[in-house]
C-alpha cells in the first residue's frame, strides 16, 4: 500500500490537478522561506545546468523568448492598429 504524502511536502510535479490552490497556500511565504526557495533553485541550477563557458548565445535566446512572449501578448492590439486606416 502506498504511503500518503501530505500536500505540503509534495513537489510541484507531483501535485494532482485539483490540488494546486491548496499546495500554493501551504507554501512558506516568509522571508526565510523565500530565501530557501531561491537557494534550492540556485543549487539546482549549478547541479544540472552549470554553464562552463557562457557567451552571447544564452542571453540572446532569453531575449528572443522575452520578445516573442511580449509580441504574443500585444498581438491583438497590434493587429487592430495594423487594420486601422490613416486618412
TrEMBL record:
GO biological process, one term: proton motive force-driven mitochondrial ATP synthesis
Domain of life of the source: Eukaryota
InterPro entries reported in the protein's UniProt record: F1F0-ATPsyn_F_prd
Topology class, membrane: Single-pass membrane protein
Keywords (A to Z) from UniProt: Acetylation, ATP synthesis, CF(0), Hydrogen ion transport, Ion transport, Membrane, Mitochondrion, Mitochondrion inner membrane, Phosphoprotein, Transmembrane, Transmembrane helix, Transport
GO cellular component: mitochondrial inner membrane; proton-transporting ATP synthase complex
Localization of this protein: Mitochondrion inner membrane
Main location: mitochondrion
GO molecular function: proton-transporting ATP synthase activity, rotational mechanism
Transmembrane residue ranges: 54-75
Subunit annotation: Component of the ATP synthase complex composed at least of ATP5F1A/subunit alpha, ATP5F1B/subunit beta, ATP5MC1/subunit c (homooctomer), MT-ATP6/subunit a, MT-ATP8/subunit 8, ATP5ME/subunit e, ATP5MF/subunit f, ATP5MG/subunit g, ATP5MK/subunit k, ATP5MJ/subunit j, ATP5F1C/subunit gamma, ATP5F1D/subunit delta, ATP5F1E/subunit epsilon, ATP5PF/subunit F6, ATP5PB/subunit b, ATP5PD/subunit d, ATP5PO/subunit OSCP.
Family per record: Belongs to the ATPase F chain family.
Protein role: Subunit f, of the mitochondrial membrane ATP synthase complex (F(1)F(0) ATP synthase or Complex V) that produces ATP from ADP in the presence of a proton gradient across the membrane which is generated by electron transport complexes of the respiratory chain. ATP synthase complex consist of a soluble F(1) head domain - the catalytic core - and a membrane F(1) domain - the membrane proton channel. These two domains are linked by a central stalk rotating inside the F(1) region and a stationary peripheral stalk.
Name recorded for this polypeptide: ATP synthase F(0) complex subunit f, mitochondrial
Organism for this UniProt entry: Callorhinus ursinus (Northern fur seal)
